[in-house]
């Protein structure tokens, strides 16, 4: 489906005759301006789809240097792009682009990254490159509203089982997921800030979970809340913030980290107020119930269902979907086996995150797709949703020491996950730089 809701009609487009890119001596002022504008436009599309900071910066640099211009500089933070290049006659051109909103669009990241590789390989005239960008933008696929709400239900249902709920409690979590998705859609129409949006959605989620359990659907309102709260947990944002900081993109990393803290505070406030209100006015809600303990295969299956929900919500398409979902099974298997072998919880999550990152990097090179597509899905079962919820619950009940202990344990897990991802991705990036330098030396030797 296209963005306006009409069905897309795929048709073969005969390739236009390719004109060689202009030689440096033939380039006028307009060429450099158009090239810089085009590179920033592609990077802006990637940024709007939720691509990492280094990928956005690398896209600008690769496209411009592919046309023989070596003096390129760019600076990217989650809301802005600043890029400049120096022309053959020494003039400096600068372009600034502001990003008002973004979302996670895996299909967009994959297609705009593929466009960047194609542009760098073919270096077509800028007019042809612009046409290719328009075609790519039109080809990015977005699921409709029905799939969006189905994905929210799958997230709640899958993680309701994953965190030890009964089938009825998982259904309650799925229904709360739909209510949360409806709230997110409604709030997005008013362009509200992240704090207010998260507060309202978490309040609706927490109240609905307790209300549904009070009506007799399941017994454990905590599990119903935990399953649905996974939709709002900023786990990916936290991981990306640490990745940016360690990669040297400090401003971008700090920006994302501040967003994480804002969302976390809103999540605590909204859920705490909702649970306190619901349990004071609704009868028959039991507290302190222990979660069920499922076998490892059932946990992996439940995690896969929840991951499928996230994949649909993040607009994951194509033949790589089963491979992306397989990553979630691998990550939880590794984590569970490490804990059963006696490793501490943070160490187990670090190893599992490293295994997830290795799998993502391997799939990216085998299938020529960004590692992000596989990494996001692989990390989903590792997001410490239960730890975040129980930290909030301890804060709500005034149990400061318990809240601090649970919060620090959750932070250790999140940090361990980020380090595990960084260790592997850094090694692969170093290997990529080594290959690039070796290839450059071979070309010079000729």
Could you characterize the architecture of this molecule?
The chain has 446 residues and is mainly alpha-helical. The protein folds into two domains: 24-142, no CATH class; 145-430, no CATH class. The protein has 16 helices and three strands. It has a three-stranded antiparallel sheet with strand order 1-2-3. A hairpin with a 2-residue loop joins strand 1 (72-77) and strand 2 (80-86). The termini are far apart. 46% of the residues are buried. The model is unreliable at 1-20 (pLDDT under 50).
- Unreliable stretches: 1-20
Distance from N terminus to C terminus (CA atoms, Å) equals 50 Å
**How helical, in percent, are the residues?**
55-70%
Strand content: under 5%
How do the strands of the widest beta sheet line up side by side? 1-2-3
What is the ordering of alpha helices and beta strands? HHEEEHHHHHHHHHHHHHH
SS class:
mainly alpha
Number of helices: 16
Please give the domain count. Answer: 2
The beta-strand count equals 3
Q: What's the rounded overall pLDDT mean?
A: 85
Radius of gyration: 24 Å
Overall 3D shape: elongated
The major beta sheet can be summarized as: 3 strands, antiparallel
List the helices and strands and how they pair.
Layout: H1 29-48, H2 53-66, E1 72-77, E2 80-86, E3 92-98, H3 106-122, H4 126-139, H5 145-162, H6 167-188, H7 194-214, H8 221-229, H9 235-247, H10 250-281, H11 296-313, H12 321-340, H13 345-367, H14 372-379, H15 385-396, H16 400-445
Antiparallel strand pairs: 1-2, 2-3
Helix pairs in contact: 1-2, 1-3, 1-4, 2-3, 3-4, 5-6, 5-8, 5-11, 6-7, 6-8, 7-8, 7-10, 9-10, 9-16, 10-15, 11-12, 12-13, 12-14, 13-14, 13-16, 15-16
């Amino acid at each position: 489906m296209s963005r306006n809701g009409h069905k897309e009609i795929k048709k073969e487009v005969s390739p236009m005759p390719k004109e060689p890119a202009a030689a440096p001596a033939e380039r006028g002022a307009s060429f450099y301006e158009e090239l810089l504008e085009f590179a920033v436009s592609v990077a802006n599309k990637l940024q709007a789809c939720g691509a990492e900071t280094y990928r956005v910066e690398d896209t600008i640099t690769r496209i411009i240097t592919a046309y023989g211009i070596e003096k390129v500089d760019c600076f990217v933070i989650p809301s802005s792009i600043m890029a400049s290049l120096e022309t053959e006659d020494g003039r400096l051109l600068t372009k600034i682009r502001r990003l008002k909103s973004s979302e996670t669009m895996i299909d967009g990241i994959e297609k705009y990254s593929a466009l960047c590789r194609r542009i760098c390989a073919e270096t077509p005239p800028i007019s042809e490159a612009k046409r290719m960008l328009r075609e790519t933008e039109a080809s990015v696929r977005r699921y409709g509203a029905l799939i969006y709400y189905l994905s929210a239900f799958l997230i709640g249902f899958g993680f309701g089982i994953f965190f030890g709920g009964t089938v009825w409690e998982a259904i309650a979590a799925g229904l709360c997921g739909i209510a949360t998705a409806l709230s997110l859609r409604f709030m997005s129409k008013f362009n509200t800030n992240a704090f207010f949006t998260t507060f309202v959605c978490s309040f609706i989620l927490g109240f609905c979970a307790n209300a549904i359990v009070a009506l007799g659907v399941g017994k454990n309102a905590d599990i119903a809340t935990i399953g649905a709260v996974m939709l709002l947990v900023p786990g990916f944002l936290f991981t990306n913030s640490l990745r940016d900081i360690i990669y040297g993109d400090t401003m971008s990393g700090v920006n994302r980290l501040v967003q994480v803290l804002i969302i976390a505070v809103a999540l605590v406030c909204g859920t705490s107020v909702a649970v306190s209100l619901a349990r004071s006015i609704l009868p028959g809600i039991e507290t302190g119930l222990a979660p069920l303990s499922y076998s490892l295969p059932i946990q992996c299956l439940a995690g896969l269902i929840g991951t499928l929900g996230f994949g649909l919500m993040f607009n994951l398409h194509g033949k790589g979907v089963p491979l992306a979902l397989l990553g979630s099974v691998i990550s939880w298997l590794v984590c569970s086996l490490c804990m059963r072998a006696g490793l501490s919880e943070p160490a187990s999550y670090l190893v599992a995150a490293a295994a997830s990152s290795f799998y993502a990097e391997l799939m990216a090179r085998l299938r020529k797709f960004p590692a992000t597509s596989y990494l996001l899905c692989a990390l989903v079962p590792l997001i410490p949703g239960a730890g975040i919820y129980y930290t909030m619950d301890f804060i709500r009940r005034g149990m400061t020491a318990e809240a601090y202990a649970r919060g620090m344990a959750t932070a250790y897990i999140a940090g361990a996950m980020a380090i595990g991802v960084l260790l592997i991705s850094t090694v692969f990036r170093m290997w990529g730089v080594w290959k690039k330098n070796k290839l450059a030396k071979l070309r010079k030797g000729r």
